């Protein structure tokens, strides 16, 4: 398993589109093969007829098949070339371009000009949606892809822009001219605007009181309206969580996610990519906030879910990404459990996978020697988001690459925290063996003096008890203690038998079985 | 574009908290946020959200960063312990800024507090600034850990002894339920679920009402 923290962005040339892709691929943007003609005509019709199912099929299957067959290493025909077949419909053209750029980023390396043009396209598309004139129903998958891709292209641009060293003069000139493109204020304000204009937060609030229907219809509007603004607003909350994690602001990121209750069903589950992105960032943010129990619980749930359902996504274009995030979350889970050994929070099937992938590394991380830092570093670097430096580059000589700065800072802070917790595993080992022990004796075993031991014990208490925003203290500790003057008394927390939950689950399950039986028609 | 451009007159009628909630991605609120930090220091109030918002804006436009303001934000965050606010702020401050002297010493102070090294903290800190806040953190941590704490340990943690320590203990006896053992002067701290495990509620058994509400349709 590699430790690469390298954004796979090959240096792109400031070049025109004709040279895209493979050396032999000659790309004519104006040539529209019949299959593409047919594709756009049908897509246009399905969108006008609000046939969400067909649109979804075309996005997920037809587009991928055609890309694979005809556009393996060239872009799709230009929007100008296909526009005549779709009445030059402005909105359709924006949507087509969105897919066009997404395909480009996935298969090829975008030039700076293309990056800028893609941003302009998103601006136009979001403006149209924000003005409330859109009357379409689009599949949630596509709407999620838009937000996801928007944030991804922003992240990609920041990485690209931070590598100033080998930029050509034209690139630098173009960057200076287009300082609005992928500007962090622009990106964040668009996401916020989508959240606000859609009033999605109020909708979710009112849904709790039964005054609104949103989750029940998966966000779709069955009364003749459009789902686009509402669902984009909803997914933008996840988008904002993601951007804030990229900036290192975990607290505010989680705040943006708050309206979505991840302990419940929600529209975020309707698209597997969204579900995973939400939990991955939620878990990572909680890891950085030292709320290990929250992180472990959520990672456990999603890893179990992926384990059970991934076979259904094998044909999907998101499958590879799904697998990658799965692996990264196992790495994060290994890290969390090494800092906060609460294996009872983890399901058996997840646990066995975890042991298989990281069993040995976890053992090494939990020893209090210096070797463990290397492993924490390795896993963190493998699994962390691709942090960005959001500010514009300095154009002064000498030009440097600073694309790793943000990552290095987060890694440094994380390892600093690990270092502070280094001695805790030593304490834990001893506490597991004794029911009570004097401070003097334990100090002797740990080869420190008593005052130092007292500070270590206080550190243990501090690091294992987090304070929520409401001021409540929550214990993360699997092994706990209290001190009476000079004696330590060990307390082992017993795993709580959750009878209540068990009964609730079985009741719901039985009801499901009875419903199924009712539906069976006896021939 | 979602960015709201308000005239200065309209803007002043919003409180800073409102600005942060409604218009956080707006470079024009930066001076307001800086003033708010100074206000927090003088009026002894604190707002994590506003301070994070300012640190983010500094991240977006590093040329506008005012290191004095950043230092004040960090001091405020330090006083919010045991909350992890200090780390939250550090995540947003570039490495080269953290290397400056004033920040290095604050980071050292934070390290002492994170690892319960109160004696070293009090040796290093400008005492007046931190007294109340850190004494509160110290007593919080002691209450989690000790049923009965020796006087010397308490003295070191809150940086007091002699008459002022007596006064401090007296105050806690009256207001926080502390008890002084007559024989050796050690302090019995109030019982809570962290230093008295038998008090721990079996949270495993609590089933929230919302969960039960989900099966009402089945039961009904």
Question: Which helices and strands, and how do they pair?
Answer:
The complex is a heterodimer of chains A (523) and B (220).
Chain A: H1 34-48, H2 52-70, H3 79-82, H4 90-107, H5 112-130, H6 140-161, H7 169-177, H8 184-197, H9 200-208, H10 228-247, H11 250-257, H12 272-288, H13 292-309, H14 319-339, H15 348-365, H16 372-383, H17 405-420, H18 424-433, E1 436-438, H19 439-446, H20 450-464, E2 465-467, E3 473-475, E4 479-484, E5 487-492, H21 499-519
Antiparallel strand pairs in A: 1-5, 2-3, 4-5
Helix pairs in contact in A: 1-2, 4-5, 5-8, 6-10, 8-10, 10-11, 10-12, 11-12, 12-13, 12-14, 13-14, 14-15, 14-16, 16-17, 19-20
Chain B: H1 8-12, H2 16-22, H3 30-43, H4 48-60, H5 67-78, H6 85-90, H7 95-98, H8 101-114, H9 118-124, H10 127-145, E1 146-149, H11 151-158, H12 162-176, E2 179-180, E3 187-188, H13 209-214, H14 216-219
Antiparallel strand pairs in B: 1-3, 2-3
GO molecular function (chain A): translation initiation factor activity
Keywords (chain A): Cytoplasm, Initiation factor, Protein biosynthesis
GO biological process, one term (chain A): formation of cytoplasmic translation initiation complex
Shape estimate of chain B:
flat
Strand content of chain B: under 5%
Helix content of chain A: 55-70%
Distance between the termini of chain A: 56 Å
Number of strands of chain B: 3
Mean pLDDT of chain A: 88
Radius of gyration of chain B: 23 Å
The helix/strand series of chain B, from N terminus to C terminus, equals HHHHHHHHHHEHHEEHH
Strand-pairing-aware structural class of chain B: mainly alpha
- Fraction in beta strands of chain A: under 5%
Q: List segments of chain B where confidence is low: pLDDT < 50 over at least 5 consecutive residues.
A: 1-12
Strand segment count of chain A? 5
Chains forming the largest contact? A-B, 69 and 62 residues
Largest sheet of chain A: 3 strands, antiparallel
Q: What topology, given as strand order, has the largest sheet of chain A?
A: 1-5-4
Average predicted confidence as pLDDT of chain B? 86
Protein name (chain B): Eukaryotic translation initiation factor 3 subunit K
Main location (chain B): cytoplasm
Keywords (chain B): Cytoplasm, Initiation factor, Protein biosynthesis
Domain CSN8/PSMD8/EIF3K (chain B): 66-188
